[in-house]
């Protein structure tokens, strides 16, 4: 992407005033998006984003600057101006660059850029038709396809030179069901670090029917009763609760500032012995997978919690300095406009020994949260509030009538202790995660779990 001499001259200039670490991140991103409403094309967008970010460390102080002009003259000037804002105790030399080679975690069979928009639109139209055909109460559909091809270079003063091309594709569908007085919607959004072969992995019509099924089911649902009760949370996107209420608290971004309830608890029991939580950036073609993180380190599988014991945090280079711990290949950023920090990749609860049928049969009364919606969380306390997109009451060990308007309220650290059954049906789902380094693709997942008691908000 840039000549070696340009990178070396930029980093050398960045070290002139005593920075003990300098890093150059260069990115070129091609993005294409097509969207349909009711089977008709509404948007067809494409774009190119190119630029570089320069990061300097002076001890535990970080200085970050970025530009979309990567001419050598401009990069060297940016480095000198950025370095001039601080002064270190001594001068550091630039190490010899050692190129790293990618491991090929995410093989691509068919690059999306090579596929005509017309062919992409055909899949979206088929999904829309399938949703409308599911039930006469489906009144609107929205379908979309996004593909992103990102070329990344990371080089730093310690001699790291790492390059990678990242390709991601995602299909989305929303179906709206309407009656005389109500509207309800269902959503699905499968994707991965794959090319256009995504459509060989999924059946768009089946995905659309599932979105339509949710919308129609919730249209006739009654209001959920409120109170304290057992809650069974299904697999897939149910993992968003762990991601938001606990996962962010295990990122060094919060831990290094002592702004996490899990700070200082390594080696301690923080959850039910049934809980093992993993963040794995090496899952082949996973939505959050990559060969390297945004500091040029190889991604890896990090066991965060093992049988209830806190084993590690997700750590980036700067927060690792502050904590006296080594990075875990977990530094991520949205693009060159953001400095990297510790973030999740593909985060999930490991499967247990119970079947979903056993979990439901063992629950005499409670709420079954089949699909989770959005919510909010305070990372410092782990307090969360999540909407249930599709829910049902459980009576006498059986799933009964659907209910809507349910909200799960609690604290992540407390909820971990109350997980008393874990299913064997692990499934992951795709989403976007926002934090101080921008919005990034992350997988969430879990098998079905039962929380012995939670506060459920509702109007019933």
TrEMBL record:
Residue ranges occupied by any Metalloprotease TldD/E N-terminal domain in the UniProt entry: 22-85
InterPro entries: Metalloprtase-TldD/E_C, Metalloprtase-TldD/E_cen_dom, Metalloprtase-TldD/E_N, Peptidase_U62_metallo, TldD, TldD/PmbA_N, TldD/PmbA_sf
Record SUPFAM superfamilies: Putative modulator of DNA gyrase, PmbA/TldD
Matching Gene3D superfamilies: PmbA/TldD superfamily
Residue span, Metalloprotease TldD/E central domain: 112-219
Keyword Iron-sulfur among UniProt keywords: no
Metalloprotease TldD/E C-terminal domain: residues covered: 227-458
Keyword Protease: yes
UniProt KW keywords: Hydrolase, Metalloprotease, Protease
The family this protein is said to belong to: Belongs to the peptidase U62 family.
Protein's UniProt name: TldD/PmbA family protein
Organism: Anaerotignum lactatifermentans
